[in-house]
Amino acid sequence: MSDYKPLPWQLPVIKDKRRVLLLAGAAGGGKSRVAAEKIHLYLMKYPGATGLVLRKTYASMLNSTVLFLQNEIIGENSGVKHLGYQQRFQYPNGSILAYGGMANAQQREAIRGVGAKGGIDIAWLEEATQFVESDFNEVLFRLRGRAAPWRQVLLTTNPGGPFHWINSRLIVGGGAILYESKAADNIHNPDDYMDTMQRTTGVDRQRLLLGRWANAENQVYEMWERTTHVTEEADFVKGGGEVYWGVDDGYVGEIDEDTGYFKQNSHPRVFLIGQQRNGVMNIFAESYEVKMKQEEHIAKVLDLGYPTPEWAAVDSSSASLRGDVHDGQWGDRRWSIQTHGKPPRVDDSIREMRDWLLPDKNGVVRMRVHPRCRNLIMEMETYSRKPNTGEPAKEFDHGPDAARYLIWPLRHWV
Ligand SMILES: Nc1ncnc2c1ncn2[C@@H]1O[C@H](COP(=O)(O)OP(=O)(O)O)[C@@H](O)[C@H]1O
Ligand SMILES: [Mg+2]
C-alpha cells in the first residue's frame, strides 16, 4: 500500500534491476513483504506489464499469498481488480499480476498461458526452497517481457539444506544477487516474535533463527566446508599415487525419491576410493548400495576401472565382507586385495580425521573429495552428535566412517 516504507535492507532490493535476486536468510526479516511491494510498484509503474507470483502449490498460494497481496500490498484504493476465476489481479494501466502453483501438470498448465505472447516481465517465487530447479528454469526462460527496460525474478526463502539447488547454484554458484536478512533487521515484528524464535531448536534453529543452509547442528566434522574440501582437483590421476579403499558394511535401506539420497534409517554398504598424492588423501569415487550381495558389490567397484587398491580398510565387525574383499570372485572375475580392519577406537580416529580436514595456516587441507561423491558429501555435512549424550548419532555415518577407516592405516599401521 502507499504507506509502505522500506526497511534499510529492503531499499537496495527495491532499487536493484538485475535479473535474479535471491532474498534469503532467517525468518521474519521482511523478505516476502519487499518482494510483494516491489512487484506491485513495478506493475503500477510500467503499463501493460505481466507479473507472475508462484508458490509450489496452488493451495498455499490461495490460502496465504493471495490474501497477503490483497490485504497488505494492493489494498482497496489502488483500482486493482481481483479476477479470481482467472487467477490474476488486473491493474488500471493494463498490467496484470497472475498467480498460481507448480505442483502438478494441471497447475503448470494454468500458469503457462500467462505472458504466452509477450513473455513475463517480473516474477516472484515465494518459499522458493519448495520448487525444483526445473521450475526455476522454466520461469527464467519465460522472462522476456518488453513492458519495461528491465526484467527480474525474485526468489524469497528461508534456508534449506546445504545441498539444496538454491544454495549450490544461486548462492555458492553465484547465480543470483543475494540479499540476506534476519528477524532483527525488521522493526515491525511483534515483541514476542524474537522470544519465540530464540526457543527453536535443531534444524529449525539453524535455518529460521540463524539463517544457515544447514542440515544439522553438532556436526561431527564442523570444519567441513564444501568450498574447501570438495574439488575437481581430487580426481584420480593416473600414476599420481597409491590407491586405497575404505569400506563400511551395510545392507538395508532405500532412497528417498524426493531428495535422491538414502533415507535417514538406511544402512548402505559404502566403498570409497582414494588416492594419496603429496600427503593429501583425494577421495575420488564412491559406491553406495543397499540390498546388493557383497561379492557383486566388490566386482562393481572394481569395474569402475580404477587400479586395484594397495589395500582396503574394511569394517572389521563384518568378517565375511573383509574375507570377500581379501579374496573373492563374482562370475568370471577374481580378486585378491590386502585388507586392514577398522581403527581400534572411534574417538581417536574421529580426531585423526578432523586433523586431516582442518586447514593448516596456509588453508591447505589433507583430505579432499571429488564432487561426484555426492552421498559422501551430503553425509559429511549431516553426520552429527546427539545433543543429549554428545555421542555421534548412528545415521548418515556410513561414508564418514569409510573415510575414517581409509585414512587411519596411513599413519598408524603402514
Ligand atoms: N517495511 C515494512 N513495513 C511494514 N511492515 C513490514 C515491512 N517489512 C516487513 N514487514 C512486516 O513484517 C512481517 C514479517 O515480514 P515478512 O516479509 O513476512 O518476513 P519474511 O518473509 O522474511 O519471513 C510481516 O508482517 C510484514 O508485513
Ligand atoms: Mg516470507
Write down the Rg: 26 Å
Helix and strand element order: HEHEHEEEHEHEHEHHHEEEHEHEEEHEHH
Q: How many angstroms separate the termini?
A: 71 Å
Q: In the CATH hierarchy, what is the superfamily of the largest domain?
A: P-loop containing nucleotide triphosphate hydrolases
CATH topology of the largest domain: Rossmann fold
Strand order of the largest sheet: 3-4-5-2-6-7-1-8
User: What structural category characterises the helix and strand content?
Assistant: alpha/beta
Question: What does the overall shape look like?
Answer: elongated
Q: What is the count of structural domains?
A: 2
Poorly predicted regions are none
- Can you tell me the CATH architecture of the largest domain? 3-Layer(aba) Sandwich
Report strand %.
15-25%
Number of strands: 16
Structure description:
The chain has 414 residues and is of the alpha/beta class. The chain folds into two domains: 11-197, 3-Layer(aba) Sandwich (Rossmann fold), CATH 3.40.50; 226-412, Nucleotidyltransferase, domain 5, CATH 3.30.420.280. It contains 14 helices and 16 strands. The chain has an eight-stranded mixed sheet, with helices on both faces. A six-stranded mixed sheet has the order 15-12-9-10-11-16. Strands 13-14 form a two-stranded antiparallel ribbon. Strand 6, helix 5 and strand 7 (152-156) form a beta-alpha-beta unit. Helix 12 (346-357) crosses helix 14 (398-412). The radius of gyration is 26 Å and the shape is elongated. The chain starts with 9 loop residues before the first helix and ends with a helix. The relative contact order is 0.11. The model has no long low-confidence stretch (mean pLDDT 93). The protein binds adenosine-5'-diphosphate and magnesium ion (MG). Adenosine-5'-diphosphate (ADP) binds next to helix 2.
